[in-house]
Amino acid sequence: MFQIHQRAELFQAFADPTRLRILALLTAGELCVCHLVEALQESQPKVSRHLAILRSAGLVATRRDGRWIHYALADADDPATRRLLKCATDCLTPLPEMQADRKRLAAVLARDCC
Length: 114
Description:
The chain is α+β, with helices and mostly antiparallel strands. The protein has a single domain (4-109), classed as Arc Repressor Mutant, subunit A (Orthogonal Bundle), CATH 1.10.10. It is built from 6 helices and 3 strands; from the N terminus they run ααβααββαα. The protein has helices spanning 4-14, 17-26, 33-40, 44-56, 79-92, 96-111; strands at 31-32, 60-65, 68-73. The chain has a 3-stranded antiparallel sheet. α2 (17-26) crosses α5. The radius of gyration is 14 Å and the shape is globular. The N and C termini lie far apart (39 Å). 22% of the residues are buried.
């Protein structure tokens, strides 16, 4: 069962535009930091910092493949967390900024930066 401080951490994770953009891009599937850096047009340290916050909140999971770490949306055990994540990503999808991020991501994936 979730405690109130865990819910607060979850909502704090949603309270940043860059983290919301990351979550929306991860709906496309597993990505590495280089994919996110190019799609978001943000620095690697900034993207990594936000990924750490999302991971701490239980929203993002990692998988190591050699020297690369791949990120994906976590399979949340908590039904409320799953609903919040779905609501957030559904609300973001139609935004012009998100469509631009997805277009850049498609270009990055077409040439595979890793």
